[in-house]
């Protein structure tokens, strides 16, 4: 994730301040040094890092911590505010008809991003179309077309035409009944004058409401110049960071945001068209500082629940709260969990679970859990309808049969049954609660994770049946 | 590439020179008796003993001490980071420079500038010039067909590099066949096919979703049967964090057993270049690297980082979108150019 390194090293340094009520210059300098290191290792522009750390140092030394605030919370709050200030709000994307153009270096992930954004708009109830104007790179047309098929969105491109401006113009006309037009362009860098001219022409032909710069999370200090040149050429209104599922920290995006005076719009976190997230600054910084990101989590939960429900009309997650909790419900929940994305990403959003705690878990802890879930899924596939609805009928002979049928062992089958019993008990406890109780509980959870200062991540949203 | 760093290295030299000049001036002003008074206050082990210092004063020499270098070295570190040199690697360079300079006696005749230049030259060459071999020689001497596999993350330019290298080899009299081991990405088959058609090369490819190792294996068989010199095997871009895909890469490496594995990354990459180079090297040991997009005004530090962390040389730079836009990478010339006046 973006800057997650900053998260863990900062937490480490800040924990040294634990218990202190006053901070001296030495403490501040140590914290500031740690911040510098982390930001530099995250590829944030060197001069931007110096500005930021100067500001933090000055404020930490000059501002009196409000009464009762510990030194740690005081510094944490300042770091939080300065970072929020730098990152700004996420790019405003109104849910209305519009044209968005994508620009960026070769291989930064524009075409994949175009399809992902189209998918995102379609989930929001708008009708998108992707227009592919890359006439240069071999295979670009086919790639865009296939990605759009996967995203189930409209696509326009013309493999026989060499003029990207003409394709852009024709494309807008051909897809005129779409509400959102996403114009993909060929990769180029700021020194290729003729290509910069070309994108300026495309820009004036399609007259987009918004031009987004697509940046690879791994880009280094060059991000600054690339961003400012693209900004000069077409006016950058927001930044998309791609390949965030790797280990790159994406600090180049912060530089670009600063340079173009814009904001971060979307994050790309995988190779399938669903792997796209809107950027949420508060949640992002909260997550960064180990405060969790409930809003992002609840969005994912809702989306996943909805999708799981769409696939199976008979199943309604709300039923769990009323009737009995069957193995079928458990399977659906696991399916929904899977749809939310990799478990470690999800965990990171839970207040108190992300950050500090995650750092302590062994690296493969999440893989093990995910493996277990996969095994459970296979086992449930080998069960009869009756067994799924009423797991109590499963005795020793059925366990044997299920283990054989699913290619697992009896122990795992029993583990699954045990797991189900545990979840059933938990759900039973929830069933007694009214809506109000639920919200109180969530609030409590959030406060616990919020760590005092800084204010926790975004609002609650609807947490659904969880 | 490296434009920024060259300037900064120059100013590092000047900084150290200035510091040394100041010290020399101080030393001249200081009378010998006062040096004795310092004996008690300065007993630090690291520092040159008073006797040595006195001797240096007497012979008109100045000794460079660690604290003299603190500020210039900080500036140098920032310069390296600004050039995308990975932090750990930058620290390695600083250590070498520090070790070479501290305790060095600068006679007033020999310039400090030369001393610094040598130290920088050696420190940079140490990290960037590793495991050098002659690519053409290796191709010439290897038993044909020679199989090359290209690895790297998504979007760095593996396929384009393969097309360029095929042309590079053709110009030197080696025929080549392209193999599309990227059976995953949308449009991958079309992309490499178009390159093959443009260059009039044979392409071996399977359906999307096929086994990449099998594709490259088929290409090797084709090359054997048709007397083709070199097999250029593409692979799907993958992030080094994807365990499944990295395991697949290991399998390709095991099944195909290539003569050379080339890691492709972009010259504009930042700190992460080290991490991924290391991971790819672990999965399928690399023989060298090619850096692409070197025309996009990269800072160039990725070259230093990757060479250092893998201990394998940077072989080529990709410098544009044409098939001829590929250049040999010469670390010695680069370092000469960087630290020269």
Q: What is the total number of structural domains of chain A? A: 3
CATH architecture title of the largest domain in chain B: 3-Layer(aba) Sandwich
Q: Which percent bin holds the helix content of chain B?
A: 55-70%
- Label the structural class of chain B: alpha/beta
Oligomeric state as shown:
heterodimer
Average per-residue pLDDT of chain B, rounded, comes to: 87
Give structural notes:
The complex is a heterodimer of chains A (466) and B (341). By secondary structure, chain A is an alpha/beta fold. Chain A has 3 domains: 4-87, Four Helix Bundle (Hemerythrin (Met), subunit A), CATH 1.20.120; 98-279, P-loop containing nucleotide triphosphate hydrolases (Rossmann fold), CATH 3.40.50; 291-450, 434 Repressor (Amino-terminal Domain). Helix content of chain A is 57%, strand content 9%. Chain A contains 21 helices and 8 strands. Chain A has helices spanning 4-16, 25-41, 46-62, 71-87, 110-123, 140-151, 164-174, 193-206, 223-234, 251-260, 281-288, 294-311, 317-322, 327-339, 343-349, 356-360, 365-381, 385-389, 396-406, 410-431, 435-450; strands at 98-104, 128-132, 154-156, 180-184, 210-216, 238-242, 264-268, 276-278. Chain A has an 8-stranded mixed beta sheet with strand order 3-2-4-1-5-6-7-8, with helices on both faces. In chain A, a hairpin with a 7-residue loop joins β7 (264-268) and β8. The radius of gyration of chain A is 25 Å and the shape is flat. Chain B starts with a helix and ends with a helix. The longest helix of chain B has 27 residues, at 3-29. In chain B, α5 packs antiparallel against α6 and α6 (112-128) runs antiparallel to α14. Chain B is of the alpha/beta class. An 8-stranded mixed beta sheet of chain B has the order 5-4-6-3-7-8-9-10, with helices on both faces. Chain B folds into 2 domains: 3-128, Four Helix Bundle (Hemerythrin (Met), subunit A); 135-329, P-loop containing nucleotide triphosphate hydrolases (Rossmann fold, 3-Layer(aba) Sandwich), CATH 3.40.50.300. The chains are: A alpha/beta (466), B alpha/beta (341). At the A-B interface, α2, α6 and α9 of A face α4, α9 and α12 of B.
